[in-house]
Amino acid sequence: MAVEMASQSQVLVEEKSSVRILTLNRPKQLNALSFQMISRLLQLFLAFEEDSSVKLVILKGNGRAFCAGGDVAAVVRDIEQGNWRLGANFFSDEYMLNYVMATYSKAQVSILNGIVMGGGAGVSVHGRFRIATENTVFAMPETALGLFPDVGASYFLSRLPGFFGNKREYVGLTGARLDGAEMLACGLATHFVPSTRLTALEADLCRVGSNDPTFASTILNAYTQHPRLKPQSAYHRLDVIDRCFSRRTVEEIISALEREATQEADGWISATIQALKKASPASLKISLRSIREGRLQGVGQCLIREYRMVCHVMKGEISKDFVEGCRAILVDKDKNPKWEPRRLEDMKDSMVEQYFERVEEEEEWEDLKLPPRNNLPALAIAKL
């Protein structure tokens, strides 16, 4: 009963005519997704899809974050107690939720007024409409934690519009922070609305009486603005990003950046090199391969592959960097993880390969079973 109460208080539901407003409600934890929240969201999204009276779903966060990611600290506690399979259940449900959102037959509007990281991107970027504001801070910081950009990131990062080229590798490997203007410019956000206008926007959206996303789109377009990109934005460094992040390996990417640094003293380049050198070598290598494989795969295939990868990460046989990264960043907060392997060159291709294979020797382990999505309209597939 306590678990049921927690899931209901952690996800608040408002009914306004044909619209359902869901609010992530763990403000002290920056709305990090607990297992109960993920289960509740999955239950609600499936129920709303079946309910013909529901035309639109709005998702937002309480406090200064939309959602700072999945509650990985709880997963690490399970791993340390020898229960990595409990962590597998967390990721399995999370990826199912991502898949339902990616293939959702009704419009989802996510209001990203604050921090959006990791799992927070997973519950928003797969939806049709993503509203950034001047308060938005987006990042996929997984490589600093010994993880990799998951929640379908190998699908959505690899589909950033063409002119953003190798921005996908840059965002995924470095954990770089993007503001609302940058999110709009690269396609991660569909609209930019000043936070002072969100209440009025929400009220107008609650008058939508149709499943047709063009009705919500018309309202959103009336509120949207086109903010200026800051001079220090990575958007102004796209030529460097393309030159460096198109390289075949992580080692070659870093070497290319170091060559750029000798030609011009640029704080952005040195910060990018530092971010890569501080990240887990194992994470960098599996992340680069994952994002590049994602270009050729559908969202379901990406999530199934990411589930294999995350099970290997939690099992910790190839590298225990996930537990160590969470210790250094989230628990002890000394920001000094001891990665193993310590150097990129010690993370061999054969070790990378293992992350992409089935967890064969594990009893009763199965690939991720995505829920069947029958009779979906064409507009429900591929929103990016």
Strands, count: 10
What fraction, in percent, of the residue positions are helical? Answer: 40-55%
List unreliable stretches of 5+ residues: none
Order of helices and strands: HEEHEEHHEEHEEHHEHEHHHHHHHHH
Walk me through what this model shows.
It is a single chain. This protein is of the alpha/beta class and 384 residues long. It is built from 17 helices and 10 strands. The protein has a 6-stranded mixed β-sheet with strand order 1-2-3-5-7-10, sandwiched between helices. A 4-stranded mixed β-sheet has the order 4-6-8-9. Helix 2 links the parallel strand 2 and strand 3. Helix 2 packs parallel to helix 4 (84-102) and helix 11 (238-245) packs across helix 12. The two termini are 39 Å apart. The model has no long low-confidence stretch (mean pLDDT 93).
What is the topology?
Blueprint: H1 2-10, E1 11-16, E2 19-24, H2 35-50, E3 56-61, E4 65-67, H3 72-80, H4 84-102, E5 107-112, E6 115-117, H5 119-122, E7 129-132, E8 137-139, H6 153-156, H7 167-174, E9 178-179, H8 180-186, E10 191-192, H9 198-205, H10 213-223, H11 238-245, H12 250-263, H13 267-278, H14 281-294, H15 299-315, H16 321-331, H17 349-354
Parallel strand pairs: 2-3, 3-5, 4-6, 5-7, 6-8, 7-10
Antiparallel strand pairs: 1-2, 8-9
